[in-house]
């Protein structure tokens, strides 16, 4: 863009902004003057709210332009209308808003969420109204103003700001979301304004106006509750945006009722009521929108946690699979290499025993044979601990029965009962191995420490595989978590796989394990 085009574009922007602001300010002043004949109060009502909103939402380079336009139109009004001495304050009040906006703009730029910005705007309106009241009070004696005029000026400035500033921010926010891409920091898109919101507002306005004009005397005791119903409904349905719309429509309704039927005894009563219902609607809207946002954020966090938990469970299953593959590989190597070597040693010892006539050699051969048998038994036990072969060959049920035989429950007069309700081919390898390891550790604890005479083991299938082991032994000590690692290891493994592990100890002990199962597909088989 050339320099001439840029200058031309800037001139057009300034001219358009000045014309639009001047027309809007004058139109709003005309409406305010119709409601309040006082020239100064009319300027402090809706035009003051427009000025605050425009200066907050526009770049700083336009502020002096708006200030000049406001001073110019104020001077023009004073020159053509009959004015009072206090109307000269029209030349002072624009500077109050201007000097308040200067520090406020720095705070405004740092706010990113809608509820922070709305609360900041409401705070700005209240501070502006109090500043107007303070200036009016300081000048009331020199200008011979009545005592109630200070309160009127304060309430008028607050009422106009409460109505127009949030409404202008709503329009700015909606247009910005519609035509411009939003930055990631603007996270207040949880409620989008829809035509239905305007239709509801118009409907409430029509019904309220008809009721106000038709049943004024009958509804007078309930007028506060009736007027707040649209605010509550719109805030609940559309959040802060609905609260802003309801506040504006209710204000029009209340003003119409005042002009048509004299519903309020004075203008101040009307403005106080308008301010009250607007603050209620905005407060409810902000609270509901923020609650909705927090619920969305909580849902996102829960979804993220669920994904993380699922990933960890998948990782845990993979780790268990890798561990079992390593166990299987080591067991195979032990069986193939050490088993063959032990067999060869036994054969060599037998040959030496048969071919020699010397007693010392025979004794050595027998000792070698005895040691090889001990190594063979130890290796078989180690192979069983690493990877029980029967689990691969005959399935979980037979592996558990063999485990019970190795525990020698029958020889120790312990009644062991096994109830398993799932076919072997329906259980994936990781779940089967995990269950076997858990049951192996639990039965080992019962065999060594429980002093039980009855042990019942039940396995119930389903989307969550349930394991229950009950005995009538002495139970667990209170500090069982600090004694030994077996049960803690079971608890950690089950938790990592997304299951649950609980213990009930009293007259005997009851272990309950719930473990998610993965039914293998045809490809896995």
From TrEMBL:
UniProt-listed Pfam families: HATPase_c (PF02518), HisKA_3 (PF07730), MASE1 (PF05231)
Record-annotated membrane-spanning stretches: 12-32, 39-57, 63-82, 89-108, 114-135, 147-172, 192-215, 244-260, 272-293
Superkingdom as given in the UniProt entry: Bacteria
Membrane topology: Multi-pass membrane protein
UniProt GO cellular component terms: plasma membrane
Gene3D superfamilies: 1.20.5.1930, Histidine kinase-like ATPase, C-terminal domain
Location relative to the cell: Cell membrane
Keywords per UniProt: Cell membrane, Coiled coil, Kinase, Membrane, Transferase, Transmembrane, Transmembrane helix, Two-component regulatory system
PANTHER family associated with the record: NITRATE/NITRITE SENSOR PROTEIN NARX-RELATED (PTHR24421), SIGNAL TRANSDUCTION HISTIDINE-PROTEIN KINASE_PHOSPHATASE UHPB (PTHR24421:SF58)
Name the record gives this protein: Sensor histidine protein kinase UhpB, glucose-6-phosphate specific
